[in-house]
Amino acid sequence: MLDVVGTVANTYPMSPAGPFGAAGVRPGFMFATGIENSAPTIAGGRIRRDQLAECGHYERWQEDFALVREVGCNYLRYGPQLHRCLLGAGRYDWSFAEEAFAALRRQGTVPIVDLCHFGVPDWIGDFQNPDFSGLFADYAGAFARRFPWIQLYTPVNEMFITAVFSAKYGWWNEQARDDLSYVTAIKNIVRANVLAMHAILEVRPDALFVQSESTEHFHPECPAALRHADFRNGERFLTLDLNYGHRVDSGMYEFLLDNGMTRDEYRFFMQQDLRRHCIMGNDWYATNEHLITGTGSSRWAGEVFGYGPVTRLYHDRYRLPIMHTETNCDEGPNGDEAERWLWKQWAGVMQLRRDHVPVLGFTWYSLTDQVDWDVALRQQRGRVNPRGLFDLDRRPRAAGRAYAKLIRDWSDVLARQGSCLHPALAALD
């Protein structure tokens, strides 16, 4: 039986306390942050939004890794950029990755490796390319062979959002807005994720996969909106249903087959049995709940149910251990909104744990401020979004100080409680 916390704790040395006084790697709970590495293309593929470049990480990566320790996180969502590493079929450039991951290993920070974050190399094109799945699986296997000490992976980040923004809303990459392109993107993206998991497991049989996925809910505004909201609430599960081999409902099955998925392709997904290697990552923002009108259009609803109730819907469906893998909030005009959002999310996590839902970890994403995420990277404005634990000058924000305190206050308590992952996995055998 796999015990992720015990295995990882034995693989990495204990990190000394940073200036904030937070503990290092401990069994029992995964306190994480992430270094934003989104890299979709916009403007018909002419512009790549590489957030590692735009947020200064390539020049300041050593400083960034030191900040991870300072805030007290024992885990880091992080990955090399696919478009820089995958140069061609079977051709890889590991130079930056080797230096960066060696540094993480030395300092005792456990990486959750993010291999594809919203974009593919120019020579592949976009998510309509059926060759992407196999090429990505080969890349994942090559990465695992190059870094055999790494255990935790997110092969494709936010599969649902990748497909929606690229092939339904027309914002990124292929910039399509039709159902055929959308279903094509879904099946290519999820197949890539599944094949990558298999490729990594051939190298590291005890690998574990954190499916960082946007947790969504759609509310009907009026009775005429009910059928539209029901459809969208079925659609939100598509990528995870296919990834976990969970049967979709009849409406979603018809939608998939009407828009290009064959029965053999659907059968491929239903035959997968990788659940015992999976942790369901749930990403949560103030924009994750939507209000649906009678014509089917949608707008953001703000927090109605909140993280806990919506995450419970996902847990009830898949019965997998959970990690809260992303959240953030602008600091607001008074500088305190992000801090209040942090404590609100933490309260949701703790309530789920009290209700015996196996929540294994929490993540503030990202380490530093981001650029142009207020317009979902669709326009190259260069506007800094104050959502990080640190600003782009690497000075701590209020959320960073609050997160360091949270980790310092709760690490020992959660370590004494022990990990709830082991019994959750035992129940899946």
Automatic annotation (TrEMBL):
Gene3D superfamilies: Glycosidases (3.20.20.80). InterPro entries: GH, Glyco_hydro_1, Glycosyl_Hydrolase_39. Pfam families: Glyco_hydro_1. It comes from Muricoccus vinaceus. The lineage of its organism: Bacteria, Pseudomonadati, Pseudomonadota, Alphaproteobacteria, Acetobacterales. It comes from the Bacteria. This is Family 1 glycosylhydrolase. SUPFAM superfamilies: (Trans)glycosidases. PANTHER family: ALPHA-L-IDURONIDASE, BETA-XYLOSIDASE-LIKE PROTEIN-RELATED.
